[in-house]
């Protein structure tokens, strides 16, 4: 099986994630979209690691996972905090800095 | 042509306690001025006496320096006192130093002697002024600056003093600056002087460019071998400076208005000393002018014009002080004329300057005394018959009057006659000069006699033209319907009359005293050079003297017939065209307005307009552009996270696209 298929899959996953981030209003769903994009990236890194025969890509993928874990913690905490104060999880309602 | 051989004069360093202490001449009045200005109201009670003491100290020290010079042989009477290294910029180095020689010492003594007397006079004159202390501070500042001017050994230091006296003059003309006309007069004097100062600056720059230095020794030592054109340019620029400071044509218009200052100021600054600085400058620059005959001819022409100009204006003015100011202008015209005549005239210019300093200061103090007794009134048409009420003022003023007329043996006779004779001495190559300038000088003597007699008779003689409160109306010219001023004329206090008496004695004797032996001409020889053989005037001297005296007598007679023998109208009659023009200073102000002030105003206005439209328009236009761009860009910042994310994504795609495009 060609390694190209993995790249195609990663592209599809990334596109779905990006579309989710851009189109959905619910903060949780947007968050899931971000996670999807990160994982698509991981897939690309691992694929290229395989392609070039060294471990740099895999190491990078581990880094991304660690950062994503930390990001999920903080992001969810922010979303919960916003939901508590504004009774909404819509990202369009969070525009206090503008007005 | 005069064969001029200068006495072998060498400058030597100053020796002895008096000469090396000469810096105190300037320092003491300056320190006194600083104390008076800084001490504030605390010094109100004794401040004026400190001012008198500082000025008197300078006089005594000046006397000491002069005695130490007279004890030396004539050839060694030029001394240089090095003070400190003043400034050094590139190839220009200027040392601050004093030049102690007969010329500067003559000025020092005149300034400090007349100055001290006027200080004493001012103690009484300004007694009721709450700012008397400030007045004395300015007077001391003036004395210090004037002494610096005459003692300086370089044109730059001289310029420093030159500006100092200009400042003091400005401060004192506008001393009562709570009245707008006084403040305006002060500004007018300052601005007119600025034009002259510009000439001085250009002259100094030309000297530096040509000779590489600005001290007298360098400049005067390098005159020989310099292009005549350069020397003429320097001479003309120096003359411009002199016309500004000495109120000569065409910069004379400020002097009449300068009479807005207190009368002692008019006596000291605008008659006896500061306005003569231009004459000093010309005489001091004698080696320059000797080598530039064209510049000298212009000097004579300026002097001749001013001499007639001032006399004509003085004949029509009804304001006592302004008539005296016009007379000052005219007399300084005589001095400038004499200075422009070259080696034969320098000494006589200074001679007339000294005698004029005495009699004109005396007459101004007399005018102040009259104003003191007449409730500060200056219109001579409201005076008359004051001789009965102010005996001392009348006599001292009368002696000054005889002195300025040139009646022998009073002071003016000795100096003015010499100038008239010198003006008649033929100049090689242009015989017309002697006749033209001689005639002008002669005519000036007659005019002087007329306007001074007019002033004297209108003030002190004739019938009284004021209300003495006794109920008997004075005899008045037919058709007078105006209300007369209620006056109680009285003699001034002794502090005022004593300086007047001393100056009057000077007016009588100084001319004769300074002609004893070789006199002031011999005394000034180390500076002005000696004329080996004095060429004879085109007319014999006794004839000239007789004609002068006849003209003077005619002037007195005419004035007596018009202003003492008949009733003088209180309201000035319409007068002839010339009278009306002379009352308005021969339209000098109108000419200045039309030529300089109006175009200047328009230029300023157009600059303001341009500033508003172009400069401000550019600045505000740029600001408006920024604001517009900002409000356009603000629309992008809508606060929706998703649109920001979309922007980032689009940016990323564009970037990747660009990279790929570059690769492929």
UniProtKB/TrEMBL annotation, chain A:
Pfam families per UniProt: Oxidored_q2 (PF00420)
State its Enzyme Commission number(s). 1.6.5.11
Annotated Gene Ontology cellular components are:
NADH dehydrogenase complex
Q: Which UniProt keywords apply?
A: Membrane, NAD, Oxidoreductase, Translocase, Transmembrane, Transmembrane helix, Transport
The keyword Magnesium appears for this protein: no
Q: Where in the cell is it found?
A: Membrane
Q: Where are the transmembrane segments?
A: 6-23, 28-48, 60-83
The UniProt GO MF terms for this protein read:
oxidoreductase activity, acting on NAD(P)H
PANTHER family per record: NADH DEHYDROGENASE SUBUNIT 4L-RELATED (PTHR11434:SF21), NADH-UBIQUINONE OXIDOREDUCTASE SUBUNIT ND4L (PTHR11434)
NCBIfam families attached to this UniProt entry? PRK05715.1-2, PRK05715.1-3, PRK05715.1-5
Q: What is the designated name of this protein?
A: NADH-quinone oxidoreductase subunit 11
Q: Which organism is it from?
A: mine drainage metagenome
